[in-house]
Design goal:
The protein is mostly helical. Helices cover 54% and strands 0% of the residues. It contains 6 helices and no strands. α4 crosses α6. The longest helix is centred in the first third of the chain and has 26 residues. The radius of gyration is 18 Å and the shape is elongated. The mean pLDDT is 88.
Length: 140
């Protein structure tokens, strides 16, 4: 494993990894649940989805949205065993040790802390189907 400062410097050079940011719902989730509970969720996700030597659906087990930890996993290359090997130097095809799991969770938490220092993302405006200029309902 590489030092986290080196890792975050290398991640900052990746245009793919830099595309990931928390949306308003995930940002609010982190505010509401707090770092401790979000960290517990991260640890559980890593233990269940990434720690086995041959995880089910490896490479496809981490959704792109739905929880702040999932977004953080993609941003930090902790989303699958291939990325863990490439970016973190953690070998594939063997279970993650407790130390490796703790490393992954620490990286995720560090990224979430950084995201929470950014201004809150704008909430998406609700999509309105009603058009005041056209009383006819929009069916398509």
């Amino acid at each position: 494993m590489r030092a986290s400062d080196d890792l975050f410097h290398r991640l900052s050079q990746s245009s793919f990894r830099q595309r990931f940011h928390l949306g308003r719902a995930e940002y609010d989730y982190c505010l509401e649940k707090g770092e401790a509970l979000t960290g517990e969720h991260a640890a559980a996700f890593i233990r269940q989805r990434l720690a086995p030597g041959e995880p089910a659906n490896d490479g496809k087990q981490t959704p792109m949205r739905g929880h702040p930890v999932f977004i953080a996993q993609h941003a930090t290359a902790t989303c699958c065993r291939r990325c863990l090997s490439k970016w973190h130097g953690i070998p594939q095809h063997q279970p993650l040790t407790h130390e490796q799991q703790a490393w992954v969770v620490a990286v995720i938490i560090r990224w979430l802390r950084q995201e929470m220092q950014r201004p809150a993302p704008k909430a998406k405006a609700p999509r309105s189907r009603a058009n005041p200029d056209n009383p006819q309902p929009d069916l398509f």
